[in-house]
Amino acid sequence: MEDCLFCKILKGEIPADKVYENENVIGFNDIAPQAPTHILFIHKNHTSNFNDITNNDPEGLVQVCEAIAEHTEKSGLKDAGYRVVSNIGETSGQSVFHTHFHILSAPRLGRFGS
Ligand code: AMP
Ligand code: ZN
């Protein structure tokens, strides 16, 4: 996907502060963090959102979930507590149309809402 920002990160055309990588998945710090810890996890294969990856690459979805579980266990985020968010569609706040999962952690996260 030529115009996809996260595909450009995957190709190394745009730098990213990577905190996790395996054969299929990367995790990198969000450029505009909304919490003390704010990481994005993406699959190396392009899909556009949660529904797209679920319907068209369910194995990839599992691989992203496994990577999140592995990283959060190793880094202590699981014990600290964290939130997983995936925005679907512009009205939800999705601005990059490559499926991604926000990992947010703070001593006390605010409730989500409107
Ligand atoms: P969303 O708005 O749910 O589509 O999430 C996209 C996220 O990507 C936002 O939280 C942005 O801050 C983040 N973002 C945009 N450009 C970059 C970048 N070059 N490196 C890291 N994060 C980025
Ligand atoms: Zn992409």
Structural commentary:
This protein is α+β, with helices and mostly antiparallel strands and 114 residues long. It has one domain (5-105): HIT family, subunit A (2-Layer Sandwich). The chain has four helices and five strands; from the N terminus they run H-E-E-E-H-H-H-E-E. The chain has a five-stranded antiparallel beta sheet with strand order 1-2-3-5-4, with helices on one face. The protein is globular and about 40 Å long. The mean pLDDT is 96. The structure holds adenosine monophosphate and zinc ion. Zinc ion (ZN) is lined by residues 1, 4, 6-7, 46, 98.
Judging from the principal axes of the Cα atoms, what is the shape? globular
CATH architecture annotation name: 2-Layer Sandwich
Unreliable residue stretches:
none
Helix content: 25-40%
Q: What structural category arises from helix and sheet content?
A: alpha+beta
Q: What is the name of the CATH superfamily?
A: HIT-like
Distinct small molecules bound, one entry per kind: adenosine monophosphate, zinc ion
Strand content: 15-25%
* Main beta sheet strand tally, sense and closure: 5 strands, antiparallel
What is the CA-based Rg, rounded? 14 Å
Overall pLDDT: 96
CATH class descriptor name: Alpha Beta
Order of secondary-structure elements: HEEEHHHEE
